[in-house]
Amino acid sequence: MIRSARRGARVLALFTLLVALVGGCASLPESSSPQAIGTLTDGAVPTSAPAPEPGREPDRLLDDFFEASAVSANRHQAARQFLTEEASGTWDDGARTVVADRIDTLSGPRTTDIAQFTIRSTTAGMLASGGEYQAGSDTFDASIEMMRVDGQWRISKLPPGVVIDRSAFLNTYQQRSLYFVDPLGGVLVPDVRWTSGSQDQLANQLVQLLIDGPKSALSAAVSNELSDDVSIRGPITKADGQTSQVGVGLGGIRIDFGGLQNKSDRDRELLAAQVIWTLASAEVAGPYVLLADGQPIDTAKPDGWTTAGVDSFDPLGGTDDTVGLHALASGGLLRVDEAETTPAPGYFGQARNLRSVALSNDGTLVAAVADTGRPAPAPSSTLMVGSYDGGAFPVAEGQSITRPTWGADDNAVWAVIDGTNVIRAARDPSTGQVSVIPVEATAVTTLGNRITELRLARDGVRAALIVDGVVYVATVVRDPSGVYSLTSPRAVAIGLGSDATSLDWSTGDTIVIARVATDTPVVQVTVDGSRMDALPSRNLTTPVLAVDASPETEYVADARAVFALNNADPVGDRYWREVTGLAGVKAVPILPG
After folding, report:
1. What pTM was estimated for this model as a whole?
2. CA distance 401 to 419
3. What's the maximum distance between 2 C-alpha atoms anywhere in the chain?
4. Which of 248, 353, 398, 578 has the maximal Cβ count within 10 Å?
5. Could you say which residues of the chain have pLDDT below 50?
6. Phi, psi of 265 (to 5 degrees)
């Protein structure tokens, strides 16, 4: 007999649909206001579970055990209540944590005092040490034996590690972002983790995770001002020194660091930015009193910091409003105003053979793929680079070139030629000369036959790619010699159900994806693949051809027009609205980057 482990009644129905389009079945949830996991439940996160119910049948007790396994406090003490004393002493709960899309229990042989079961599940992901979620789709089988102890059934044999039903996982763990520093030292890079426990434990958890450093896939691409000899002196308290309810409600945070003696003022500012935005994004309110060996790390802020003191590092800061929305229409670049469009000045506005366009983040430079008009076997596409209001020149050719994407420093544009050749066209700011340099991308090109989309995150540390219709996120690493590589690619939209056709970064930890589908053509996925949400489909006519995004707004071009989705709209009034300035124009939206 097969029966599913108990779930659902205690959990919002939305959770049972997250991260899933299993077996090609389109069942993505439609969330009109995607949020980080953990913000959809009221009150404190559960930190305890009921004790085993007397007289419980073994199969039902096993369901209760899986539910209790979602509570990780005190080495899964809640779940250990369901084990025999001997099994509790030998169970290695830290071996691994499997997040199961579904847990099925298969009954085996049973006697008066012994019952055997096989548990079988489809894996949605694994939770590694430090709260790192690793998306994956696999099957998991394990044997469990139960025995009677003083008349009550208890688990006597079980595999190492923890298996958690996804619904229970999403209801017990919360998605948080740690922030590290990009190679240029001016932008914070999110490192998504999952934590559990009560709110008054959160500040200590997050700061300790910062000290432990970034996940391995990011370690070569970011820096950490809390590394090396940095430590915490004494307990983290409220700003006034109180030790109870730290991080709960008002009252601020006080952290005394050791090991900062050799850090410059700039390094201390970066440290403050990492700590403050990590805590603030987790709803741990300031002021943030940051000390070094008992003294303020910045003497100008003796009473503590606020997010305003590090607002230039705001990880959710929007794009440059002065650049504005642009569009590609009839082969040329247009600037889109509220009610009309005007051709961009210079070459790109006058051209009529452009296939795709990318604006630098500051809007001063443009890269575009142009049709050469030459017959085969001559290359049909050329990558053009130039100034927004001036001329342009070709830098590379190929039969196909992906939509260009600009690096964080606005001096290099990336593209993929003929599906496998990733290049970086770097401009010397002093001379304006552009050099085309290959990017080491073997880790990505071995994933499939063809890269059809490459988009750099605004921090320049990650790249989102589509390879043979599958979405991956890779880390951008620059070695000391100046060579760039795409490393540690991971599939993040597992269960998408159909091929991805276009994508872009909404925030540093969220990607918007257009896919081949009629019901939910646009989805949003977290950078670690832990959560996928369908964006509203109201007003869209498939196919959706292109997507461009910012923290404030997503834009798409569908079969009829260009539409915008405003992330600030109320939940009940969030749908795609046609961009007025592009009404009646067949166009592709273009944002900086």
Report:
1. 0.88
2. 7
3. 86
4. 398
5. 1-47
6. -60, -40
